[in-house]
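Amino acids appear as letters; backbone shape is given numerically. Here is one record.
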Amino acid sequence: MICALNGKPVSQLVREVTRPGRYCGNEINFPQKRDGRLKFLLCFPDLYEIGMSNMGLRILYHTLNAHPDFLADLAFAPWVDMEAFMKKENVSLSGIGTGVRAREFDVLGFSLQHELQYTNVLTMLDLAGIPVHAADRSDSDPIVVAGGPCAFNTEPMSDFIDAFGIGDGETVCAEIARTVLSARSGGASRLKTLEMLSELDGVYAPRIQADERASLTIRRRIEPILKDED
């Protein structure tokens, strides 16, 4: 059996890390698409057991994969023994279902549930081989977005995140994916892509809007629990 992390055999993980099943994927009754014009990696900056029990993460996963043009996969923060193993063996952070390296995705979306996860975001970016600071990323790097409860206060992570989704993510996540797909299909630069994202309701792109943040109002996206029927 091969784990999702760059083809390393599970037998090697068993000898060196605790609970290697965290990193193997292949969950029963958890569907996984294999293709899509835009690849979106949903990153939960905490352990697999915590992330997989998060209902919001599952909603976003199924929402994105329901679109014929999108492929969504999941990634979680490794425990310290796995982090050491990945650095020693030069193993990149990858999607747990597809095994595709994180830096090969078009979008990385982090769910910020509480402040203690902030350093885990930086660890995951580093393990993915993606520049930690947003200003250091090139056109070939994924767009790094973040949402969740802590996205309401963007400043602590504004140097590291390209765009924040403020409020409920069910709709804005798909809109971000459509915008990035449109931008990349048209050959837009990274900066132009961020400009396009900043025009979406409920999205804040620090590199584009930082100078006007003192007077800027971003309205949070709120999805109705019960929708009106015709």
